[in-house]
């Protein structure tokens, strides 16, 4: 198969969809890989490394789209890319269709095959191509929180781990999923006193078993949250209710209970945030202060660490991309339900319920469509 990797052009997106190691894997299976010049440079990968791994560099994004059967990207195509997409071309990237009607209609019109990272789903309902970004954001939440707790950043002026003879900081984590677990490990490793709250008792049992001594687990409810915020220095929002807006676990009125300089890092901001006073911010201007409480609400936290994020993402996407390249998307999706769940739009037809529902558009049966493709190929 001919695979193309364009340079990301969405504002502030520094990741790239394939590393030189990924190129070498495709080459091992006899595929051809075209990479746009400078595509990896913001993630720390020079053109020479891609060439050494067996890629052919192309000067423009038009060249890459024009020659490739499968386009591997990170972010959804933006308007200037729509016309470059060809009928039958396979696009493997994050799409988040339900949040953009314009993108959905554009992809229907282009008659491309859109396989979305975010809906590739395992039988246990986990989302293997979203997990790496939650891991990055969870670990980063503590790093950022520690920074904004410093006095010059308007924080309380407390060191997370304390020093001998001085108490460490208290870190409260709402939600003990992927983000919360990674955040807890980082904060505990730095010596902070950590409390994780979740509504799932099995999850709290698991966390209680694996976490170090300086991590407590607590059932999440309004009463416990209200008590805990009074003596927490850093509060990390990491809840998720799949398919729904995050609940406001910390209300505006609770800010008054917090000590001045408390830092809130609402990682769940991309789902509306679990802190009522949270509004999305950017890496250029990540924080604001309300009632003497510092809010950090960056919606694309992994974007600040493109090297780590690129490698983490491609570690997860590559095995799926290889299946698509080795078998063709039709057979790869017939053989692997995880990949099949990633199909959102196929040759102008919506095949993913969430996208059809979001815009009241007709839903097509993905199995029928794959069956038809098979018959056409056999014929
Ligand atoms: N800002 C960013 O850059 C960024 C990056 C990655 C992920 N995220 C977001 O972070 C959030 C968490 O992601 P995740 O991968 O950890 O999800 P997850 O599903 O692994 O974990 C969510 C946890 O929240 C718990 N929960 C639900 N309701 C709760 C409540 N009322 N109180 C306490 N806990 C509750 C669930 O039981 C679950 O354990 C999501 O909104 C995700 O989109 C943001």
From TrEMBL:
Active site per UniProt: 96 (proton donor/acceptor), 270 (proton donor/acceptor)
GO cellular component: plasma membrane
GO MF annotation: an example: alanine dehydrogenase activity
Binding residues for NAD(+): 134, 198, 203, 220, 239-240, 267-270, 298-301
Single biological process term from Gene Ontology: L-alanine catabolic process
Domain annotation Alanine dehydrogenase/pyridine nucleotide transhydrogenase NAD(H)-binding: ranges: 149-297
Domain of life of the source: Bacteria
UniProt EC number: 1.4.1.1
Residues in Alanine dehydrogenase/pyridine nucleotide transhydrogenase N-terminal domain copies: 4-137
Keywords: NAD, Nucleotide-binding, Oxidoreductase
Reactions it catalyzes: L-alanine + NAD(+) + H2O = pyruvate + NH4(+) + NADH + H(+)
SUPFAM superfamilies reported for this sequence: Formate/glycerate dehydrogenase catalytic domain-like (SSF52283), NAD(P)-binding Rossmann-fold domains (SSF51735)
InterPro entries per record: Ala_DH, Ala_DH/PNT_CS2, AlaDH/PNT_N, AlaDH/PNT_NAD(H)-bd, NAD(P)-bd_dom_sf
Similarity comment: Belongs to the AlaDH/PNT family.
The protein's name in its UniProt record: Alanine dehydrogenase
Organism annotation: Larkinella humicola
């Amino acid at each position: 198969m001919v695979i193309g990797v364009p340079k990301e052009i969405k504002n502030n997106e520094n990741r790239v969809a394939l590393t030189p190691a990924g190129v070498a894997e495709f080459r091992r299976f006899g595929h051809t890989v075209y990479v746009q010049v400078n595509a990896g440079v913001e993630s720390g990968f020079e053109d020479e490394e891609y060439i050494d791994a067996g890629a052919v560099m192309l000067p423009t994004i038009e060249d890459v789209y024009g020659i490739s059967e499968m386009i591997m990207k990170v972010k959804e195509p933006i308007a200037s890319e729509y016309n470059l997409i060809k009928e039958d071309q396979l696009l493997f990237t994050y799409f988040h269709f339900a949040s953009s009607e314009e993108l959905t209609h554009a992809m229907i019109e282009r008659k491309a095959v859109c396989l979305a990272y975010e809906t590739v789903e395992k039988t246990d309902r986990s989302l293997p191509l979203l997990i790496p970004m939650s891991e990055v954001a969870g670990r980063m939440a503590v790093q950022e929180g520690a920074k904004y707790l410093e006095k010059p950043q308007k924080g309380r002026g407390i060191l997370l781990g304390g020093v001998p003879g001085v108490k460490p900081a208290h870190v409260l984590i709402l939600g003990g999923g992927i983000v919360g677990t990674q955040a807890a490990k980082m904060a505990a490793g730095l010596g902070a006193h950590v409390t994780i709250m979740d509504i799932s008792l099995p999850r709290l049992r698991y966390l209680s078993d694996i976490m170090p001594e300086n991590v407590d687990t607590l059932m999440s409810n309004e009463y416990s949250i209200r008590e805990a915020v009074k003596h927490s220095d850093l509060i990390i929002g990491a809840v998720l209710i799949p398919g729904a807006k995050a609940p406001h676990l910390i209300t505006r009125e609770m800010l008054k209970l917090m000590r001045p300089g408390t830092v809130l890092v609402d990682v769940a901001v991309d789902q509306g945030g679990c802190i009522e006073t949270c509004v999305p911010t950017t890496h250029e201007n990540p924080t604001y202060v309300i009632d003497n409480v510092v809010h950090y609400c960056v919606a694309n936290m992994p974007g600040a660490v493109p090297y780590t994020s690129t490698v983490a993402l491609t570690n997860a996407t590559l095995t799926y991309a290889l299946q698509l390249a080795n078998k063709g998307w039709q057979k790869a999706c017939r053989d692997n339900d995880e990949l099949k769940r990633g199909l959102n739009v196929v040759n102008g037809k919506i095949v993913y319920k969430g996208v059809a529902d979001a815009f009241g558009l007709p839903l097509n049966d993905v199995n029928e469509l794959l069956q038809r493709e098979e018959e056409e190929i056999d014929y």
